[in-house]
Write a structure and sequence with these properties.
The chain is an alpha/beta fold. Among the domains are: about 200 residues, Rossmann fold (3-Layer(aba) Sandwich), CATH 3.40.50.1700; about 140 residues, Toxin - Anthrax Protective Antigen,domain 1 (Toxin - Anthrax Protective Antigen, domain 1), CATH 3.90.182; about 110 residues, Immunoglobulins (Immunoglobulin-like), CATH 2.60.40. It is about 25% helix and about 25% strand. The chain has 19 helices and 36 strands. The strands form nine sheets. Strands 10-26-25-24-11-12 form a six-stranded mixed beta sheet, sandwiched between helices. The chain is globular. The site of beta-D-glucopyranose (BGC) has 8 residues, from loops.
């Protein structure tokens, strides 16, 4: 068990922790368990403990500022990382993130997100890895190992069954024991076993009647007791609700602060006899151990003393992106491009959507759009661009053409501080205010500056945020009133939709003055002080028919048409689920029109999670590009030109919503029953006998593979499969060899087959390669609800090796 792999250094750290704990009184101890602000725990100088800093996660390290003036490398979305099927690459991603965290003084990364793709409608689908618990566990283990080998902690989240966003703070997910063990807990268990995470984050939701921040059974008995987890259990932000319930349920840290159910309230509960001081001590011990591990507790040796060798973040972001792109269709080998001219089409090709929304947002220092990437890679004159149908029909952060500064004034109107405000976004958390400004003195914030339009016509301006606002453009005041929240979610001010407040006729290239003033009124009793609002903007909408006609014309005049289709911030983010899987706006129509004009039409899909592609049989190629991170455009050029092959395989089934087997994400009377049991993702598609658009595991490279032999043999830790394959194409390539296990006699209680393991092979043209895939004991087990234990199911199975769950090339029987 993971917890028992102790080293002498662990023992030494524990001694320092014990000595430090002994010096703390009750008030200091309970203070340490409560956030002192949005991202940190308090320092306790009396024991030589520095303040512990946490930050989101998972594709970068945002740091304690929610702002573009504190940039971070932005890697591709977690779905993309999982599409690489490469734990070693996930590990390198983790190492880079540790480097970013160290640079920003962050000790714990609030990641990875290892909830499952139960339904394609889940709002944070892009932020999770896969519909398969095994693949999720393998990628998550690589990631956690990487981050922690850089000396930075992780909090594997959200424990557990936070698989959708509707009513996420209160929903009671009713998860049958088998599904809980075999699916939702499985990645957490694997990561605890393989990567020994220093932290876990408990979710907002309840599971089977108990809120996760108080779930004694799942936290104390399963996570700590059965699995030997020895790290810290941090609440999701504002998820801790009851002092005694949380501490007795095994929650160590209540975030964020300063108002939490811990701190003084916890000290009082101990004094009243509602909580045993031993429970507080146990939590403090774990927090101090984390502090020791990351090197902020005096006299304790950090796990990693020296920062590891430097990782080039730009190169790694590009490598992960191209390795994640999944080529799902490539008729007549239209890709890689054979030279000639390219018409690049789509708003997302110019204004790339490189990451998903919500707490997973980071601010990269640069973004290489597909237009930038292809312009740099193709010969002069080979590339043309047309915007096509514009999915940007919605208000978005004011970052194109705006130069804005935030001016802070006190109640008398005196200027007390300023800060740049790239993107028109103000998100100041806790004590992170401009120099010279405090919450006591701050009265108004004015976002002010100029805007240079890139198009002529009616520009729409909007406001995201709550409270009193005044919006003035070019000397005219368009809004002077109070905006109220639409929903009772503490994060509505962050994740809610901007409201349109002005439409102004502007001329391309002619600057205008812009001002948005907000009166800051933060109630005293809120758990965290956050000053947040956004100036939003939307360009004039040109006549869509005209735009599509322009794109068709560009496509007709080029050898190849590359159309980028995309989702928007209002489709994939945190705090809400999707209601359909369609591409927004008129993008489907655009693709159809372009494909009709040019037989060499390649569609690149820029979304973090599945979307419907109703025209997929009518185009030559479809490349799934995820949210590709800051270097996405460069990686796309690498793949389209053939400098590299697209390396991804689907970590999740892509199909239409009508066919998708699990679509219920909305609770009834507060409850969401997981009635499908263990049948999610491909397990459910197979049981329903439906054929998805693209099956789990599918993805083409630029070469061909023949599977030559499959041999099952007894390995050191149980059976293993040896697969020999040959690269029969004309280019070197990398193949993800997938091994599926199926009961020889169908068993209606079990999926018809499941992923048991995988390995990747690399070979040059004509060369053969061999991989060995161990079949873990767990692959043969089910959770037996009667005995409440794992049960090894003896009997005959079929082992299949292949390219996806649907494309199985070789099979062999096995008896266990
Ligand atoms: C999210 C977490 C995140 C936290 C801090 C919550 O709303 O669910 O994933 O780490 O906020 O930003």
């Amino acid at each position: 068990m993971a917890g028992s792999q102790r080293t002498p250094a662990d023992t030494a750290r524990e001694a320092v922790v014990e000595a430090a704990l002994g010096k703390l009184g009750l008030d200091a101890k309970t203070r340490l368990l409560a956030g002192q602000d949005m991202w940190t725990l308090p320092a306790l100088p009396e024991i030589g403990l520095k303040s512990l800093v946490m930050s989101d996660g998972p594709i970068g390290v945002r740091g304690v500022r929610w702002s573009a003036d504190d940039p971070s490398v932005a890697l591709p979305s977690p779905t993309a990382l999982a599409a690489t099927w490469d734990p070693a690459l996930a590990r390198r991603a983790g190492l880079l993130l540790a480097q970013e965290a160290r640079r920003k003084g962050v000790h714990v990364l609030l990641a990875p997100t290892v909830n499952l793709h139960r339904s394609p409608l889940g709002g944070r689908h892009f932020e999770c890895y896969s519909e398969d618990p095994y693949l999720t566990g393998v990628i998550g283990s690589g990631y956690v190992t990487g981050v922690q080998s850089g000396g930075v902690g992780t909090t594997v989240k959200h424990f557990v069954a936070n698989d959708a966003e509707t009513d996420r703070l209160t929903v009671n997910n009713l998860v049958p024991a088998r599904a809980l063990r075999e699916l939702y807990l499985a990645p957490f268990e694997a990561i605890v076993e393989n990567a020994r995470p220093w932290g876990v984050m408990t979710a907002y939701n309840s599971v089977n009647g108990t809120t996760m921040t108080e779930h004694h059974h799942l936290v104390q008995e399963v996570l700590r007791g059965e699995w030997g987890f020895d790290g810290v259990n941090v609440s999701d932000w504002t998820a801790a609700r009851d002092t005694a319930g949380a501490v007795n349920g095994g929650l160590d840290v209540a975030m964020p602060g300063p108002q939490t159910v811990y701190g003084e309230a916890l000290a009082q509960a101990v004094r009243d006899g509602r909580v045993a001081e031993a429970a507080v001590d146990a939590a403090v011990r774990r927090v101090l151990l984390l502090a020791a591990r990351v090197g902020i507790l005096q006299s304790a040796e950090p796990v990693v003393a020296e920062p590891p060798e430097a990782v080039d973040g730009i190169e790694l972001a590009r490598e992960i992106a191209r390795r994640s792109f999944v080529l799902v269709r490539n008729e007549r080998d239209v890709l890689p491009l054979k030279g000639g001219t390219v018409a690049l089409i789509g708003a997302a090709a110019r204004d790339a959507r490189v990451l998903g929304g919500g707490s997973a947002t980071v601010f990269p220092a640069r973004i290489v759009s597909p237009l930038d990437g292809l312009a740099a890679a193709l010969p002069e004159g080979a590339l043309s661009y047309a915007v096509g149908a514009d999915p940007a029909t919605e208000l978005a952060a004011a970052d194109q053409g705006f130069r804005l500064t935030a001016l802070c004034r006190d109640a008398d109107g005196t200027l007390i501080g300023t800060r740049s405000a790239p993107g028109g976004l103000i998100q100041w958390m806790g004590s992170d205010l401009p120099d010279g400004v405090t919450h006591d003195t701050l009265h108004t914030v004015e976002l002010t500056g100029t805007f240079i339009p890139r198009t002529t016509g009616p520009h729409t301006f909007g406001i995201k945020g709550m409270g009193a606002f005044t919006l003035t453009i070019d000397g005219t005041t368009y809004y002077d009133d109070v905006q109220r929240p639409g929903k009772d979610d503490p994060f509505e001010a962050f994740f809610g939709a901007p409201v349109p407040r002005a439409q102004v006729e502007l001329t391309a290239g002619e600057p205008v003055d812009v001002s948005l003033t907000h009166v800051v009124q933060l109630p005293d009793d809120i758990p965290m002080k956050v000053v947040t609002f956004t100036l939003a903007h939307c360009e004039p909408q040109r006549e869509p028919d005209e735009l599509i006609a322009e794109a068709v014309e560009a496509a007709r005049n080029a050898d190849t048409a590359v159309v980028m289709v995309a989702t928007t911030d209002r489709v994939e983010s945190e705090g809400f689920d999707r209601t359909d899987l369609r591409l927004p706006g008129r993008q489907d129509e655009l693709v159809r029109a372009v494909a009709a004009a040019n037989p060499n039409t390649v569609v690149v899909v820029n979304s973090g999670s599945p979307v419907e592609l109703p025209w997929r049989e009518d185009v030559a190629a479809v490349l799934l590009g995820w949210f590709p991170g800051q270097e996405g455009g460069a990686a796309l050029a690498d793949v389209l030109t053939g400098a590299h092959e697209p390396g991804g395989r689907l970590p999740t089934t892509w199909g239409s919503l009508t066919d998708a087997p699990v679509t219920q994400v909305t609770p009834t009377d507060g409850e969401l029953p997981y009635t499908e049991g263990v049948f999610i993702g491909y397990r459910a598609w197979e049981r329903a006998g439906r054929t998805p658009a693209y099956p789990f595991g599918h993805g083409l490279g630029y070469t061909d593979w023949t599977y030559e032999s499959l041999e099952v043999f007894p390995g050191a830790d149980g059976p293993a499969a040896r697969v020999r394959l040959r690269n029969t194409g004309e280019r070197p390539g990398r193949e993800v060899v997938q091994v599926y296990l199926a009961p020889a006699e169908p068993d209606p209680g079990r999926p018809s087959r499941w992923l048991a393991g995988f390995a990747s092979a690399e070979a040059g043209p004509g060369e053969s390669a061999e991989v060995t895939v161990a079949l873990p004991r767990r692959a043969f087990e089910i959770w037996d609800e009667a005995s409440n234990a794992w049960s090894f199911v003896k009997g005959s199975y079929e082992i299949a090796a292949g390219r996806s769950i649907a494309d199985r090339r070789l099979t062999a029987p096995i008896n266990v």
